Amino acid sequence: QVQLVESGGGLVQAGGSLRLSCATSGRTFNSYNTGWFRQAPGKEREFVAAISWGGGSTYYADSVKGRFTISGDFAKNTVFLLMNSLRPEDTAVYYCNARNARNNAYWGQGTQVTVSS
Which of 34, 35, 71, 108 has the smallest set of CB atoms within 10 Å of its CB? Predict the structure, then answer.
């Protein structure tokens, strides 16, 4: 069974940092981009960041450029999101996602990030 499992969420004050992890299992993702979406209550799910498997390319939403860094330990099938300079508007459930060019996609269960002002 394919699984993506997020961890690392929590409560942090504005200006603080968190590192999210996405542990994948059940298949290889050599042809996939893997990364993160987020969804706040009452809002649509939005793209945050992605990385090609192996780390050759990275992509960021404008709202997080310069603050968040996506990376991976691909030998361990794990992708990370380092979130610095967190703001209250970053508060959301963060979901790990893996997607290929044919739009085959997998999702994790989500991890809550709450940033207090």
Answer: 71
Overall average pLDDT of the 83-99 stretch: 98
For tokens 């290929």, name the residue: 100
The count of residues in the chain is 117
Its sign, for the CA torsion 62, 101, 35, 42, is positive
> Please, what's the largest Cα pairwise distance for the chain?
41
What phi-psi label fits residue 9: left (phi over 0), alpha (psi between -120 and 50 degrees) or beta?
beta
Six-digit token string for 82: 């380092």
Q: What is the pLDDT of residue 30?
A: 92
How large a percentage of the chain has pLDDT more than 70?
100
